[in-house]
Inverse folding.
């Protein structure tokens, strides 16, 4: 299978997670009014989804190594679709949180399968290039997601957003069954013994270099999720922007991600992916220092938005390079390594998001300072990371 077709299909699959996160952001005020809850309480439905998305990967990863990518991925798509339908029928906050968590388990099985399939097929710099191509395709989803949510709100109400997500999962099942799995190399279905499904995590946890890259991923994702959780508050309540203007600014973050992701592929011909991780993390940290400074001095919307776009957009260069390095040492345990990576970033970032939501509507300075704190931690890890990954000891 060509890398372009593989990237297209896997990019469409991994896009489920950002779609389920971003599509209903413009509907936060409507959901709050409909369920008679506060704006910050709606954020709990996002935090619950993120945390469950991470924990679910701890189950899905080893099962994927044992039983193959297809049954785990398809089971996840079915659960995601069913959860989306039930969320659309929820009429209380508790019901919505419950079904969002159910939807997240399905999304977790899908999310953990994609990096594992990539590692099954390629390694090293080739893996970084494929992750970049997948990311470039995937970025279309979060860029369009708020606009999709705004369109659904114009045509009907927030319930339709989740019905559309369920329909998308159903279409993915058909596409993957016809165009992906019949073309994959046989080693993507290699099985690991049942008795080692849990103990294999210890192999990953004891690998210092891998855990350093996982730490970078966790902190950078926590920074981004802090923004996503409070993005509606920042732009729609703090600055009073409309749904359409909010969608445009949100899409600008994804646009820069796509640009940096596209530029990452030719850069990989000249630089090691580990070096690029360090450079992008430092760029992100500088942007957040500028953001805190702009907020401190009461900077205008365009200044704040520019800093946010640069910080969040830097993820387009961080993620593909960092994932390739984190996965490199585990060709035979790619599902387990992918699960630990995904679970760590989503559960810890989800906890950070939940903690921030529990304090109610925070000030813009508090949000910006929290984002900078996460980025400083990532920069410390990146500065100590190796300049190149030695693949001599792969598991």
């Amino acid at each position: 299978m060509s890398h372009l077709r593989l990237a297209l299909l896997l990019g469409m699959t991994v896009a489920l997670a950002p779609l389920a996160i971003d599509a209903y952001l413009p509907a936060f005020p409507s959901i709050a009014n409909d369920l008679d809850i506060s704006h910050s309480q709606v954020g709990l439905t996002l935090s619950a989804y993120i945390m469950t998305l991470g924990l679910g990967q701890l189950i899905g990863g080893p099962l994927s190594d044992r039983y193959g990518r297809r049954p785990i991925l398809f089971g996840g798509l079915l659960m995601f679709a069913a959860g989306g339908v039930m969320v659309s029928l929820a009429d209380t906050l508790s019901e919505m949180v419950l079904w969002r968590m159910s939807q997240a388990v399905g999304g977790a099985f899908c999310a953990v399968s994609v990096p594992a399939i990539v590692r099954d097929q390629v390694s090293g710099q080739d893996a970084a290039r494929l992750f970049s191509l997948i990311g470039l395709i995937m970025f279309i989803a979060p860029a369009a997601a708020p606009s999709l949510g705004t369109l659904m709100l114009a045509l009907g109400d927030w319930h339709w957003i989740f019905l559309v997500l369920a329909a998308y999962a159903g279409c993915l099942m058909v596409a993957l069954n016809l165009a992906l799995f019949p073309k994959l190399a046989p080693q993507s279905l290699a099985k690991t013994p049942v008795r080692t499904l849990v103990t294999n995590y210890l192999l990953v946890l004891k690998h210092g270099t891998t855990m350093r890259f996982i730490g970078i991923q966790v902190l950078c994702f926590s920074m981004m999720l802090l923004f996503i959780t409070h993005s509606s508050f920042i732009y729609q309540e703090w600055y009073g922007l409309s749904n359409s203007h909010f969608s445009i600014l949100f899409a600008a973050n994804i646009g820069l991600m796509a640009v940096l992701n596209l530029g990452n592929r030719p850069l990989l011909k000249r630089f090691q992916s580990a070096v690029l991780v360090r450079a992008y993390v430092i760029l992100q940290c500088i942007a957040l220092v500028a953001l805190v400074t702009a907020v401190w001095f009461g900077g205008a919307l365009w200044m704040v938005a520019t800093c946010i776009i640069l910080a969040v957009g830097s993820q387009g260069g961080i993620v593909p390079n960092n994932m390739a390095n984190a996965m490199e040492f585990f060709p035979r345990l790619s599902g387990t390594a992918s699960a630990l990576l995904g679970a760590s970033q989503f559960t810890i970032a989800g906890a950070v998001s939940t903690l921030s939501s529990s304090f109610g509507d925070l000030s813009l300075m508090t949000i910006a300072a929290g984002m900078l704190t996460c980025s400083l931690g990532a920069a410390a890890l990146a500065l100590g990371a190796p300049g190149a990954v030695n693949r001599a000891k792969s598991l």
